[in-house]
Amino acid sequence: MTSLASTIAADLRPIGHSSIPAKLGCAVTLAALADWLFYGHRIGLSLTLFAIATVCVSMLFNHAALDLRRGIIGTAILVAGLLPAIEELNTLSFLILVTALATALLLATNPATTGLAERARTLRNLFLLGPFRVFLEALEVFNISAFTRGVALWLLPAVLGTVFVALFAAANPVIEQWVSLLNPNVIFEYVSVLRVLFWTMMLALVWPFIHLRWRRSKLVVTDVADAPAPPPLPRAASAEFLGPSTILRSLILFNLLFAAQSILDGIYLWGHVALPTNMTYAAYAHRGAYPLIATALLAAAFVLVAMRPGGPAEKSSVIRPLVYLWVGQNVLLVASSILRLELYVDIYMLTYWRIAAFIWMGLVALGLVLIVARIAHDRSNRWLVSANLIALTIVLYSSSLVNFDAMITDYNVAHSREASGTGAELDIGYLLSFGPQALPAIEKAMQLRTRDTRLAQRRDMLQDEQWHDLTWRAWGFRSWRLQRRLDAEARVRSSSQPAG
């Protein structure tokens, strides 16, 4: 006796590898049609024509699964969905057209899917996962030879390596000069990057409708003691995407790229070697701080994914030292970013955003160290998140006790060109934007700029505000300390003035 039960979802039919080249050719043809209909033109009736072309190509490759009776219903739904777009193309009619197109294909080519909930799940997978299938299925199909397997293994290192080079070029003018020697403009003169992205997007959008892979409930026999074991499934190329071989190649490449950036920082930033012509230390420092922090965050995300608990690379005796080396280079990168920002502040003064950047860089460096601790002590990601939240809480609480208004204004006045002879001129407009805590700095600025009446007017306004802050309802310890400081400075000024 056997019993039947509905279990896991399965494909309506296996992938037909032999038909993939023809389907890819039709997908490219549809992308070319979309380029002719849409690119650089206002969209209207062209969308309806493109939808009809997509349906025709879909039926060409999926006619074997076509159910005639349901196909008639699907055709009626498609026609009903096209009418609003023909009447007027707007957001609502576009959504109706896309929904009608997918629903019509579902009804016509997948009779096994029944029930509103199951159909809704199927359409959800089509819209959310379908556009990504063209890349994964291409890897599955063409991962037959050793060459294509090698391409799959180097895909992630090459893509992320290119991203890191772009970030380093944005952060380091020297690297930017090296990259400019490759003269990519020669290629861009003949190839439009936006058009390539448009074609890629269109291929991803039309592929799910050409290479239909509906899923249905599969009937499984429960008494299978005497049944032969099914053959093992072939290993997909996507399984190698973050396998040990890919991670190892990535770490070797990334360590080399980061070492080049660290060596340049050691030469120019820490060693104070003369920069190339037409390049200043201010420009070198300003270009680097924020892109390098973005680089460190991207690197941290890669380490967390690659060294996930239970992953194939977590226990590797070769990968772990490379991870430690790379995280160490990222910490050095954050230290260089902090030094760059400090040099920039020395020239262009202090602001709230720059203080926030200092704090953020410190948290990033601590997060990288905690990642190493998680890997070294075999902790969970939950422990890592908790440790970072504790650090963030401590930093936020400590920041609430710091008088940033006084810190910024005192620093800017003391390091202005009027006071020190170097640096930038005092930004009076920014100084006047602060509250009563800026009063001591404004008093010093008035001594440096005796003819600026705005300072005296702002000082009088802030003094009135400060007196209101000393009433018992508005009293604060910081305001009380400020008043003691102002009184002490007033006594010093009065004692230093000559008598009558």
Fraction of residues in H or I helices:
over 70%
* Major sheet attributes: 2 strands, antiparallel
Low-pLDDT stretches are: 1-17, 217-227, 232-240
Q: Specify the oligomeric state.
A: single chain
Structural class: mainly alpha
What series of H and E elements makes up the topology? EHHHHHHHHHEHHHHHHHHHHH
Q: How many separate domains?
A: 3
Mean pLDDT: 75
Put the structure in a nutshell.
This protein is mainly α and 500 residues long. 71% of the residues lie in helices and 3% in strands. The N terminus is likely disordered.
Describe what this molecule looks like in 3D.
- The chain is mainly alpha-helical and 500 residues long.
- The chain folds into 3 domains: 8-149 and 186-221, no CATH class; 242-402, no CATH class; 405-486, no CATH class.
- Helix content is 71%, strand content 3%.
- It is built from 20 helices and 2 strands.
- It has helices at 20-38, 45-62, 68-87, 91-109, 116-142, 146-171, 173-180, 185-188, 193-210, 244-270, 281-306, 319-348, 352-376, 381-400, 404-414, 417-420, 428-431, 439-448, 453-469, 477-496; strands at 4-11, 215-221.
- Strands 1-2 form a two-stranded antiparallel sheet.
- The N and C termini lie far apart (118 Å).
- The model is unreliable at 1-17, 217-227 and 232-240 (pLDDT under 50).
Sequence-ordered SSE layout with sheet pairings:
Elements: E1 4-11, H1 20-38, H2 45-62, H3 68-87, H4 91-109, H5 116-142, H6 146-171, H7 173-180, H8 185-188, H9 193-210, E2 215-221, H10 244-270, H11 281-306, H12 319-348, H13 352-376, H14 381-400, H15 404-414, H16 417-420, H17 428-431, H18 439-448, H19 453-469, H20 477-496
Antiparallel strand pairs: 1-2
